Amino acid sequence: MTTQASAAAGLEGVVATSSKLCYLDGQRGVLAYCGHDIHDLARQATFEEVCYLLWHRRLPTRAELGDLQTEFARARPLPTAVVRMMRSLPSGHAMDAVRTLVSALAHHDPDVGDDSPAASLRKSVRLTAQVGTLVATLGRLSAGGGQIDPDPVLGHAANFLYMLTGDRPGALASRAFDVALTLHADHELNASTFAARVAAATLTDLHSTVVAGVATLKGPLHGGANAEVMKMLSAIGEDADDERVDTTIRGMLARKQKVAGFGHRVYRTEDPRATHLRQMSRDLGEQAGNRRWFEMSQRIEAVMQEDTGIHANVDFYSASTYHALGIAVELFTPIFVVSRVAGWTAHVLEQYANNRLIRPRAEYTGPEYPQTFVPLAQR
Ligand SMILES: CC(C)(COP(=O)(O)OP(=O)(O)OC[C@H]1O[C@@H](n2cnc3c(N)ncnc32)[C@H](O)[C@@H]1OP(=O)(O)O)[C@@H](O)C(=O)NCCC(=O)NCCS
User: Fold this and answer.
1) 228 and 378 in contact (C-beta within 8 Å)?
2) Ligand 1 centroid to 343 CA: how many Å?
């Protein structure tokens, strides 16, 4: 017996809401935030401009951008209690720590309990600023370094690298990281954004919606894929020749294993974000004097094209890009949070502004109704 029309597996092709934020055309490989093509944003905008664009649906003036930068600088330092909590967590998956600590930040937010539109926007700005510090500090402490305070004169991307490494990054590294943040900031109804919107539609608070987003992003089919790519590259080995690369990938395909960093539910062309990340992976590898990870990635891409026609997605060249920036693999997925928190919060604000509870139906496939109830003593 079914109560509904057949469900689309994974909700493929289902239009679940309307949104003014992200335009995605998977056939033509187009991605745009509020009408602005991702290639223009990657080449010309900073992450802070993109945050403003997503929250206000238009690009900021110079004065508005200045105000946002000031708000970010003010909000970046973490509450001492949250850093203490970070230090007290047992070692484990970095995304578990991010999830717990985003939740902890809610307790210290001056607007806690105020879910008005103005307070939710303030929380979005504050949380986006704080998450950069949170992930950088997490990486710094896990590597045995001491906590580094944010530098108010640095932008968001440069601050992240500075707080993580203790060194002020060069122009290429800061720009590359800034572009990576822009590219990951929003992506329509991806799984974590959908999770955040479902949470928002119950009118829960903004921090709770972001916790839902973090929890969903962790999975290897979503944000966890960039770390899986690096693990795959490392397992193949820096010294591996092309033949070994080819055999490994073809072996995975023969065993019907998914190759991390390839495939997408929506794109049937190259993921437009991969175009920029490929270039950054090459440039940063060259600057670091090690092109091997980039070359190995290119080889894998060629094999995947030849054997399956499946394209690289955003996660594939993020891996070698972050590696060339000296970032540990455990931080790859948390870095996705540093950026996507802007998109999640923009979607949550949009959901709050025009809300209806999201409550779909399931196609019932269980035992036939009605079943006879056998009392416990007779079972
Ligand atoms: C992204 C992803 C989850 C999309 O899933 P989806 O839309 O449900 O697509 P499916 O998993 O049904 O894949 C469709 C077909 O392509 C194949 N395929 C998809 N991605 C593949 C990959 N990365 N490696 C090998 N084959 C892949 C599937 O095996 C399937 O083949 P089949 O029809 O012969 O069974 C999927 O491509 C994937 O698991 N990729 C690897 C993880 C990843 O990079 N995630 C980050 C996404 S940004």
Assistant:
1) no
2) 24
